[in-house]
Write a structure and sequence with these properties.
single chain, mainly beta, six-stranded mixed beta sheet, 6 helices, 33 strands, binds copper (II) ion
């Protein structure tokens, strides 16, 4: 393993030198080597109030279901206030979408209307639901069509999100702006003294990097050396460039979502003050962790509570993430980059906020002794277990009601991560060691450093369908689009996997 790793490093090193020497590579390789990456610390003018996505309106129909409407469309936006209009896409607006919100036990319906000029899908990232409602590449919605998935929310309060999942086009659709937050509530979370006034002391923070062309258009410049996709030099937070947030309470809860296509962030505060880490992908942690950094790879979420003093200004910042691929490979994958993300501006008088409780959501620990089986997934190149994604191939068959251990390893010299649809999992170990506090709760996406395998445990409950698969994949969208994805079905005991629809099937009606 060590040999493979150093080989990968040498390969990247040689590649870098070759690219620097060759004419075409001078700009790319020379730039990265000389500058050591992007650094916006101290260079961001926080001149725009942070946009807070509106809460989506909903109605309760005659069957008691909470009904949302979500319309995907093209748009344009002047991100920099200089008159340059960027071509974008969004839900119900020009960029990103409203925050959907529902409570555990509610049945929801979302009428997804596709007003784009091309087909897309909408996946409910982190949601436990039937495969036919999942919004993956088997639920494509044609232009002009409406798709109306429905399911009953049956999982803890959490910060989830939604985004397109069309096979081969996910990076493009997300990069243009198609994404939004989906907050779930439950009684247990509601009983805790946590900030929860949306847009006041409970704030969605969707962080995305973009490259802008001189004409103001989104540019998809790929970092050819690391091959991880687009690493932009400008951050958008909820679509805002250079955002500040006026805070009027002693404590503010930030729901951090890494909505970027490839970049990993290591979030902290400009004066390195500790904050309360209270939640991960699938909801509240068992216990509050006092930390001064939380690292998020694409698709991951964290809920944090920050203490503020009257009148002060402190900046949410991303410092170089630990990607674990070695200094040079990390650098090409954004591992040397720093960003000022969001300035928090405390008012001179702050309303009191109760202290964050120590105990949050005690969780039953899944026990590997209860696991029916262990599956191994190895990510290399653009494949998982040596296979590239095929829409009509079922890779794994899981029995409903079973608990499984999934061992996932990255055998490349560059970053990957791993996302599983339908379930939230627990992390048993990372590189053989006990997981850190940030991985102590429910997760649906986990970072994969090269040669540091993660052991995950998950239980497949409620939903089964032998013909309709769920996905597992790298959530670096360039990799996912290139085939680093597989499909599993959940079947009843004794049932065999069926046949997934052939590519090109669609959901919804015109
Ligand atoms: Cu990957």
């Amino acid at each position: 393993m060590a040999g493979r790793r150093s080989l990968a490093r040498v390969t990247i090193g040689v590649l870098a030198v070759v690219l620097v020497l060759c004419c075409g590579g001078v700009a790319v390789g020379g730039w990265a080597l000389a500058r050591g990456g992007t650094d916006t610390v101290g260079r961001v003018d926080f001149v725009r109030p942070l946009a807070v996505p509106p809460l989506a309106e909903s109605r309760v129909d005659e069957r008691g279901r909470r009904v949302f409407d979500l319309l995907a469309r093209e748009g344009q936006r002047d991100f920099h206030g200089d008159g340059r209009l960027t071509r974008t896409a969004g839900f119900d607006g020009d960029f990103l979408g409203p925050t959907l919100r529902a409570k555990r036990g509610e049945q929801v319906v979302v009428n997804v209307v596709n007003r784009l000029t091309e087909e897309t899908s909408v996946h409910w990232h982190g949601m436990h639901l039937p495969a036919r409602m999942d919004g993956g590449p088997h639920q494509m919605v044609r232009p002009g069509a409406t798709w109306s998935p429905t399911w009953t929310v049956n999982q803890p309060a959490a910060t989830l999100w939604y985004h397109p999942h069309p096979h081969g086009q996910t990076e493009e659709h997300v990069y243009r702006g198609l994404a939004g937050m989906f907050i779930l509530d439950d009684d247990r979370e509601a009983a805790l003294p946590l900030p929860r006034q949306y847009g006041v002391d409970d704030i969605p923070v969707i962080v995305q990097d973009r490259d802008f062309s001189r004409g103001g258009q989104f540019k998809k410049t790929r970092n050819m050396i690391a091959g991880i996709g687009v690493l932009g030099d400008t951050l958008l937070v909820n679509g805002t460039v250079g955002p500040y947030l006026d805070v009027r309470t002693e404590r503010v809860r930030l729901r951090l979502l890494n909505g970027s296509t490839a970049r990993t962030y290591d979030f902290g505060l400009s004066d390195d003050r500790p904050f309360a880490l209270i939640g991960s992908d699938g909801g509240l942690l068992p216990r509050t962790a006092r930390v001064d950094r939380v690292q998020l790879s694409p698709g991951e979420r964290a809920e944090i509570v920050v203490d503020l003093r009257p009148g002060e200004r402190v900046t949410l910042r991303s410092t170089p993430p630990e990607l674990g691929a070695g200094a040079l490979a990390d650098r090409f994958a954004g591992g040397a980059d720093r960003f000022d993300v969001l300035q928090l501006r405390a008012a001179d008088t702050l309303a009191a906020s109760p202290p964050v409780p120590q105990t949050l959501a005690p969780t039953e620990r899944l026990d590997p002794a209860d696991a029916e089986r262990t599956r191994r997934f190895t990510l290399t190149g653009r494949s998982i277990n040596g296979r590239s994604m095929e829409l009509d191939r079922i890779d794994e068959t899981v029995t409903r009601g079973s608990t499984e251990v999934w061992e996932v390893s990255n055998r490349d010299g560059t970053p990957h991560n791993f996302h599983v649809h339908d379930v939230q999992f627990q992390v048993l170990s990372v590189g053989g060691s006990a997981p850190p506090p940030a991985l102590s709760g429910w997760k649906d996406t986990v970072y994969l450093a090269p040669n540091r395998p993660v052991r995950l445990i998950m239980r497949f409950t409620d939903h089964s369908d032998p013909d309709m698969p769920y996905m597992y994949h790298c959530h670096l969208l360039y990799h996912e689009d290139a085939g680093m994805m597989g499909q599993f079905v959940v079947v009843e005991p004794g049932q065999r996997a069926g046949r997934p629809p052939r590519s090109g099937d669609h959901s919804g009606h015109d």
